[in-house]
């Protein structure tokens, strides 16, 4: 038996309880977790913004060590350190054949599986977003594991599984920030902090961080922000004032609220680019009129998993980490146990801190 954080139903409180994990079956791997990041997507699962079968063990950003493998698994063996990939591509759907593996139609099929049972009553449990990282150990498809990069502490490597791939990819793949361009990042959480560092790596000449909390300025500047704006009704005007009344070349929205998306779009120059990373609910309606779309010539793009291919991008990001260009530890503002996850959710809702990291 292992301890895990179980979501019994949408809208219910997490339960820290023991679960029974089976031995890995054909094509499966059992992993002992070293750490798991607490992501806003986990919170979105608890309130129903994103839906997966429940009861479920949440957590999708993690790293650990392989302890057992099932028949037919030859890509890893017991003792290997790995990073979990919560959205493995199938390689055969339309998106995958186009090379857009981050849009794989079958990536989350595993979330519907029963992968474990509650120890107390035998209730079937689903693996959240495929990997169920909020547990001491988990059993996943071999497609959900990637080799942990050498020279990166395993606890820090957990952040590579979502926050860093998403923030880095939003800047380098979706927005395609070029050296010398100006960038605004909305939301200084785990993904936002990764995006700020990615903008610095890309050579952005000015990087404006925007958040509702004045307390996050030090975090943002340490990640690469040259300017800090506390979100308000005048945010777009303030950003234009910082950029010669033009607006930034690129805005990266990491919040997922209609007003923030609209403000990010308005803060870019004529012809500017806005990438939306944040996941909002269906009630968050963003409106534009036809004339302003024509006049401003701006683009607004969605971004899934940073438009990343984890197998391709993880080694690139790891090299930035080893070279000191990307500081994974700077994303973490709290290290907790499983019992600390509900409080981490509350801090997230209150706009406090960066990434909370569950360390086993």
Could you walk me through the main structural features you see in this protein, from its secondary elements to its overall organization?
This protein is of the alpha/beta class and 360 residues long. The protein has helices at residues 40-46, 94-97, 154-157, 163-174, 190-202, 217-223, 235-242, 258-266, 290-296, 310-322, 341-349, and strands at residues 2-7, 15-20, 28-38, 56-57, 61-69, 81-84, 116-118, 124-125, 137-141, 145-147, 182-186, 206-211, 227-230, 248-253, 268-276, 299-302, 332-336, 355-359. The strands form three sheets. Strands 3, 5, 6, 9, 10, 17 and 18 form a seven-stranded mixed beta sheet that branches. The longest helix is centred in the middle third of the chain and has 13 residues, at 190-202. The radius of gyration is 20 Å and the shape is globular.
């Amino acid at each position: 038996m292992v301890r895990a954080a179980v979501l019994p139903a949408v809208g219910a409180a997490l339960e820290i309880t023991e679960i029974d994990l089976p031995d890995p079956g054909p094509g499966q791997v059992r992993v002992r977790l070293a750490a798991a990041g607490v992501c806003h997507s986990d919170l979105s699962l608890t309130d129903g913004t994103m839906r997966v079968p429940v009861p479920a063990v949440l957590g999708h950003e993690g790293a650990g060590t392989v302890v057992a493998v099932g028949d037919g698994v030859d890509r890893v063996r017991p003792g290997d350190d790995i990073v979990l990939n919560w959205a493995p591509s199938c390689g055969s759907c339309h998106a995958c054949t186009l090379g857009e593996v981050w849009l794989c139609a079958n990536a989350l099929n595993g979330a519907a599986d029963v992968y474990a049972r509650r120890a107390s009553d035998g209730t079937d449990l689903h693996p959240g977003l495929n990997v169920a990282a909020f547990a001491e150990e988990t059993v996943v498809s071999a497609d959900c594991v990637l080799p942990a990069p050498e020279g990166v502490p395993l606890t820090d490597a957990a952040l590579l599984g979502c926050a860093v791939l998403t923030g880095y990819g939003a800047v380098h793949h979706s927005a395609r920030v070029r050296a010398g361009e100006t960038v605004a990042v909305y939301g200084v959480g785990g993904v936002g902090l990764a995006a700020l560092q990615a903008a610095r790596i890309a050579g952005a000449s000015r990087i404006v961080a925007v958040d509702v909390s004045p307390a996050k300025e030090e975090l943002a500047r340490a990640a690469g922000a040259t300017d800090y704006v506390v979100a308000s009704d005048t945010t777009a005007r303030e950003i234009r004032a910082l950029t010669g009344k033009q607006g930034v070349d690129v805005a990266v929205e990491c919040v997922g609220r209609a007003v923030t998306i609209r403000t990010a779009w308005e803060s870019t120059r004529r012809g500017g680019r806005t990438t939306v990373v944040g996941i909002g609910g269906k009630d968050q309606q963003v409106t534009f009129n036809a004339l302003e779309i024509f006049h401003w010539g701006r683009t607004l793009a969605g971004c899934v998993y940073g438009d990343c291919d984890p197998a391709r991008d993880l080694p690139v990001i790891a090299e930035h980490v080893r070279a000191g260009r990307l500081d994974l530890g700077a994303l973490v503002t709290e290290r907790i146990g499983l019992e600390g996850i509900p409080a981490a959710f509350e801090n997230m809702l209150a706009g406090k801190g960066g990434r909370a990291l569950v360390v086993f």
